[in-house]
Amino acid sequence: MEALIDGRVVRCATGGRSIDGDKPAVVLVHGAGGDRTVWQLQTRWIAHHGYRAAAVDLPGHGGSEGPALASIEEMGEWLAGTTEALGLAPAHLVGHSMGTFVALEAAAQRPEVARSLVLLGTAGAMPVHPALQSAADADDPVAGRLITSWGIGSRAHTGGHASPGMWLIGGNTSLLDRARPGVLANDLAACDAYDGAEQAAARVQCPVTLVLGREDKMTPNKRAEGMIDAFGDVHSVYLDRVGHFLQIESPIPVRKAIAAALARA
Fold this sequence. Notes:
alpha/beta, Rossmann fold, eight-stranded mixed β-sheet, 12 helices, 40% helix, 17% strand
C-alpha cells in the first residue's frame, strides 16, 4: 500500500490485510540498501495471526519517495512519525541490521510509539570496512556481492531453503543492486557514524527481544553485549548456523522468535 505522509509517498507491505482497525500493530524496518521485501517471509504470517503488519520502505528506498535520510537519528524520527501517521502507534517495532538502529532510535526518542522492540542482527556499533564503503560510494555492484557473501551463514552458502526455489545469494544480491544510486553508500555511512546505540538502549521503556545468528560476521554476537546490558527488559534468542540475514536465511525459527516476542509483550 501507499500513503501520503508530509507530502511524500511512503510504501509499505501489509501481508495482504488492511492496517485499519484496532488489532496490535507490527512495523518492520529493513536494513542498509534494502526495502520492504526483505520481510516477505514474515509479513503475511503476522497479518493473518492477529496483528496489523506494515513493512515500510524508508525514504529513498523501494517505493518510498526520497531523499534518503543521512543519519540514524533522522531515520528514527521519521519512523516514529510514520508509525503515528499510519495509525499504528504504539506498535511492535521490528528491525533488521540498520533497521534495528532505526527502531531503537524511534523507541528512545518517542517511547509512546513503541509497544516492544524486536531486533534482528544487531550490535552496539556497525563499523563499515573502508573497501566496502568505497565500492558503495562508487555504486559498484561489488558492494552488494561483498555484503551477501560475507553476510550469510554457512548453511545458506550450500543451498536449500525453507521456501522452495528461493535462491538466497542471488536474491539478496539483486535486492542490493536495485537500490537507487547513492542509497547503499548513504546507509552504510549512517551505520558507521552512529555511536548512540547503548545510550538509546538505556532510554528504552518497552520489552526488547534480540534475535542473533551465531555465524553473523557483520554484527558479531559479542558486539551486542554492551547493548544487552543497557536494556532493562531484554530477552535474547540465538540461531545456530545462521548469519546476518536471519529472516531470509532461517524464516521459520525467526517467525517463531518474533511470535514469541509479540506474545511476551
